[in-house]
User: Fold these one by one.
Assistant:
Number 1:
Amino acid sequence: MDPITHITSGALAGQAVRRKFPARIWLLFCLIAAIIPDIDNLSGFVSPEFYLIHHRGITHSFIGGLVAAGAIAALFRVFSRKFPFWWGFLIAYGTIVMHIFLDLITSYGTQIFSPLTSRRYALPCVFIIDPLFTAFLLAALCASFGWKSKRTHFAVAGLVWIAIYPMANLGMGLGVRHYAEVQLNHEKIVHQNLHVSPDFLAPFRWKVIAEDSTSYHIGGINLLQPGKPLRLEPFHKADMNLLRTLGERASMFATYAWFSVYPIMERQKTADGSSVTFGDLRFYTTFLNRNAGFNNGRMPFSLTAFFNREGEFTEYSYMRPGRAKTIQHLE
């Protein structure tokens, strides 16, 4: 989930406990607890591969959260001997778990059981940036500051919204899935599996991925335009054996095979030989990328291998959102 939502959720937690712990220090305490899991963003300064492996890893797990909560409570106890360590520990852990939940309900995936397993779990029912979801939280937070006599009520209402909005979206997603299934059967589109997840401007827009043995077909459903035909754009499934073979030369490709959920690929001729670009439809939005394909290698989290005229793997590039494309030459 985006930083604004995480910060707002922490502020709401701080406002919710201020009746029992009136000192303003609790607002700062909860804000720190709400954002501390994202300290793993620093892993991006090590390398793109290190980021893929460790972002939403141990700091976003239930076990890692226990350590972080204890550390935050202990730090505040050092600065104030009157600070109640165990209450602080419980409140910090609850706020950290809320952060984990907010990331779990997006499609990126979170290693909630790290370090016991590196498997990523996701319950995609909220888009990673959801204006409606965040706007209500901000409104509840502003109200909690504006009406001090009702501070706790507004704060609790905001925290309850964090739970009920995703659950409502889950139910809506089931309805969208049924609607998409009917549409696919009506248009006689053969598929083995059907995946539905929120798209940009959810809960009104949803992404549909119909899967067969060799391809993914992706399209969007806009609930504000009922009855509109479901148009699907095809993508070739990634050759996982090729990914693993490339991973023997550059570990980034083996990591990408572990990281991706809906892996796709595209082959192209280049001036010096050829290239193969891998992507993940988790990060494709039908709202912005309609009929754009790989958009010349600019799909978020796309990984491209380059081969010379003799077919030798010589270099690769990686596109991470918000960062310049990185190019790595092989020896």
Note: The first strand starts at residue 193 and ends at 198.
Number 2:
Amino acid sequence: MDAHRPVALITGASSGIGRAAVDAFVDAGFEVAAAVRAPDRCAPFADGAVRLIEMDVTVDASVTAAVDDLLAELGRVDVVINNAGAGQVGELERLSMADLQWSLDVNYLGVARVTKAVLPLMRRQRSGRLIAVTSLGGVVGQPFNESYCAAKFATEGMYESLHPVLAEFGIHVSIVEPGLVATPFVDKIAGISGWQADDRPPDDEYAPLLAAYLAHMASPEVVGQPAEAVASLLVEIATSDEPVLRYQSSPAATAVARLKLADLDGQRVSTLTRGWLQA
């Protein structure tokens, strides 16, 4: 980092990891732009170092306008935390094409829009940090998360492809893969498409599998880490002299990622995730 006070743009900043990241970056001495879809419904930030900006990552014009306004005011962006995202639980057979497009728009194309908007500036600066918060679902396909995992896989592929190219311009690209995090995001995903197991007809063959999966996710053995722990990792990456491409946010997430990377035929991962469907 240069001697100036660095500027961090954080998307999805109204709650969960994004909200925790705002506090963590302020504490680390950053000027923070907190991007939210509906500023009037966002609880106020206490610190005057936070600029609340309106941005809907699914709309090209919204992203472009927000980044242009930020650059006009501050002149630079040093770190971008692409955190905005949304879960979507439901089997492919029932998901509409509009459902699939929505998940791609939020979880993949939203990251692409924000990244595209800041890249010309970062190339001129010959510096910058682009950090995408994906998920363990961007490493391992998970039951009833077809649309969500597909979008997160896409984001990982995009950032892995950008990594060597942007390094030539002094821009560091990193991916953070949290496992389960104790945020409202986790509470919402089961019902986000309105297809909870108890709403299904008794002859629905998917219903018992979905019920078992949701029970597994809610079990005491599946404990989410605090959002603040992920936020601390984001600050660590943003301030590291030599950040690497890929990080997991917990030892449990690292163990699953390691399993996937060593599982060339996919059988070990499939055995693991199939176990989540057993009542």
Note: Residues 97-125 form the longest helix (29 residues).
